[in-house]
Specification:
By secondary structure, the protein is an alpha+beta fold. The protein has two helices and four strands. The protein has a four-stranded antiparallel sheet with strand order 2-1-4-3, covered by helices on one side.
C-alpha cells in the first residue's frame, strides 16, 4: 500500500466575529496557534501529528491526511489534493492538504 508524505499548508485563518461576540468567551481574532502560510509535513509511514500543529485541527483533518497518504483522492478536488478546515466555529482555519509525490 502506498504511504506518501503529506504537506499541510495553512491557507487562511478566519474569525467569525458575530458568533464570537454572541457565544464565545472573549475571542478577539483568528487562531493564535497557527500562521497563514505555515507549512507542516506529515510522515506518511507514521501519520503522526506534526510538531507544533493544533490537536483540535488535527482531529478535524486527520481523515483527509490518511486518505491522501494511502493514495486516495476526493471527488471534489484535484488528484492528490484537497482543501479542508478545522471545526472551530469562532476561529476556523482553512488548510490545503496535498500528497507529496516522490
Amino acid at each position: 500500500m502506498m504511504m506518501a508524505d503529506i504537506r499541510i499548508t495553512v491557507l487562511k485563518r478566519t474569525f467569525n466575529q458575530d458568533a464570537a461576540e454572541q457565544y464565545g468567551p472573549g475571542f478577539r481574532g483568528p487562531c493564535e496557534m497557527l500562521e497563514d502560510g505555515q507549512v507542516f509535513i506529515v510522515d506518511g509511514k507514521s501519520l503522526a501529528m506534526p510538531e507544533g500543529f493544533c490537536s483540535w485541527a488535527w482531529a478535524a483533518i486527520h481523515t483527509y491526511v490518511v486518505t491522501l497518504a494511502r493514495g486516495g483522492n476526493f471527488v471534489s478536488s484535484k488528484p492528490g489534493k484537497t482543501v479542508t478546515c478545522c471545526t472551530d466555529g469562532y476561529r476556523p482555519v482553512i488548510f490545503a492538504v496535498e500528497r507529496v509525490d516522490e
